[in-house]
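Hi there,

I know you've been waiting on this one. I reran it after we fixed the sequence typo, so this is the corrected version. Both the input and the resulting structure follow.
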Amino acid sequence: MKAKWFLLSIFFTLSLILSGCDNSLLVFDPKGPQAKTLSDTIIFSIIMMAGILLVVYILFTFMLVKYRASKMDDSYEPPHEEGSKWLEITWTIIPIIIVIVLSVVTVRTTSEVESKPVAYANDKPLVIYASSSNWKWHFSYPEEGIETVNYVNIPEDRPVEFRLYSFGPITSFWIPQLAGQKYAMSDMVTKINLAAEIPGSYIGKNSNFNGKDFAHMEFETQVMTEKDYEKWVEEVKETAPALTESEFDELIEPSVLGRKTYSSTHLEFSPAPEGEHAGHHHGNSDEETDSSHHMDMDMDMEDHK
């Protein structure tokens, strides 16, 4: 009877815990090839670790039962046993094999998800710049010449290349059902390749703490058919206002915003930190760069005096 109540308690506890972890469990409901690769790797690792624990618990129980203390008098001395060379070799080799297997799987998975999805290797990717600021996401479509805030629409069955960077602290871009996480930093661009195979709405978020309104840095990823996506792009171009530099300066100030849509991008006046704009001085004017260069030369001359 006690065992029954114990099992029921465990069941209800797990039910309560898991019911509050829907977002975390989304990784086990992939909607694209990259997310499927990650999900399969996680499941494989869990099964492998569960198998290891099962063997350990069985051996532990066996040892407890076989070598439990018996009712011998205090003068009893157990016989001396020599160590087993083969047992020592076995329990040394097994962990090495486990590490090798997990390492091979991890390296292969990492290489696969960092590249364009294999099924779309010959397709041109849709490039979207995803930049973060406290506490919002900006999505720039250079191919279409439009920009959105706190939501992103992408077509199904087409590779998408997100180019990530930040206008503030380091953040981590994550769409659990479509791809893994990747950091967005202020002085360089990182990339995530993905593809979505099923139209629908998928949650995206910042998974790296960056201040008091970190919890509000969620965005919707809407996967649309190619026809619906093209229709949406045309509608944005016709109806949305253009994004001005002054308005963008206000947007990147720390605040919590809803959705916004623009018929131009901030890349025109505030390019991403890549290529000639990469590094700590991206966005500086030529005059600022020359001034900085002359200051460095003057300091060097002073040092040599």
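Quick highlight: Residues 33-66 form the longest helix (34 residues).

Best,
R. S.
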